[in-house]
Write a structure and sequence with these properties.
This protein is an alpha/beta fold. It contains nine helices and eleven strands.
């Protein structure tokens, strides 16, 4: 906690740089809900506005790089930040802009290399992939690709735990300090959601029950934001990732139906039900 002129304290400061989800399940909306639930002050830099709901993404409007830079500098230069999380950066220009900003920010960065939405809608231009590899991943304290994003970035197709190791090596070759390979879609583990965290020397497997719940919109954004929240509190990467895994597992278990398609995870699953319904 840090002091204020009035002698009061504020929570750790965490910044999300991501796209907006009008349906409230993913993007900066999920990030800010996660940060609130985990006791950090969430701030946001909007990179794109999407028109989306439980059925998919109907439209995307990217913000100018100058608007992204202006939001970032306004927050960091005045308020400060103790961890940054990046999500949807739809173009090479935005990837390069954000990478440059991260390079000048003395705070850990969690890079979620968002490629497609839960519904399969493209959220990253193919022309931006090289910028992600060359400019963004080297700035990451932790990179958090899912299996589809691993294939996009490295060409590695993961079908087993050995494949997750190969994927981790391939992503680490681009320069992040740590990589978390998210194996939630790995068919080989029907009743278990398995992730691999490694820095190339230390290897940690994170295992949790796989819940039979289709309402998982926002899972990746939520996990990355939870890791950033842990880092903002001063936790080590393994501690932050383990705590984030526990939080997102509970959020998935409590995911609820919304609209006619895929509903969101429940970011407030730890809060007492009677308090939420008051």
């Amino acid at each position: 906690m840090s002091g204020s002129p009035q002698g009061r304290t504020h929570p750790p400061l965490c910044l999300t740089v991501a796209g907006s989800d009008s349906g409230g399940g993913a993007g900066i909306q999920a990030d800010l809900k996660t940060m609130l639930a985990l006791g950090v002050h969430g701030m946001s830099v909007v990179t794109a506005v999407t028109a989306q709901n439980s059925l998919g993404v109907n439209g995307v409007w990217e913000l100018p790089a100058e608007a992204v830079k202006g939001q970032y500098r306004a927050v960091v230069d005045d308020i400060g930040v103790q961890a940054v999380k990046t999500g949807m950066l739809s173009s090479a220009e935005l990837v390069e802009t954000v990478a440059e900003l991260l390079a000048a920010t003395p705070a850990p960065a969690v890079v979620d290399p968002v490629g497609v939405s839960k519904h399969g809608d493209a959220l990253l231009a193919a022309t931006a992939l090289d910028a992600v590899r060359r400019e963004l991943l080297p700035r990451a304290t932790v990179a958090t690709p899912n299996l589809d994003e691993v294939t996009q970035l490295t060409g590695v197709v993961v079908e087993s735990e050995d494949g997750m190791r190969r994927a981790a090596d391939a992503v680490l070759a681009y320069g992040p300090a740590w990589v978390l390979i998210k194996g939630g879609h790995l068919a080989a583990h029907g009743d278990e959601a398995v992730d691999l965290l490694t820095d190339g020397s230390e290897e940690r497997w994170l295992r949790a029950p796989r819940y039979d719940n289709r309402h998982t919109h926002g899972t990746g954004c939520t996990l990355a934001s939870a890791i950033a929240a842990g880092l903002a509190k001063g936790r080590t990467v393994p501690e932050a990732v383990a705590g984030a895994k526990e939080y997102v597992t509970g959020a998935i278990a409590a995911g609820f139906a919304l609209g006619a398609g895929i509903g969101p995870v429940d970011h407030a699953w730890q809060w007492p039900r009677d308090a939420r319904n008051a």
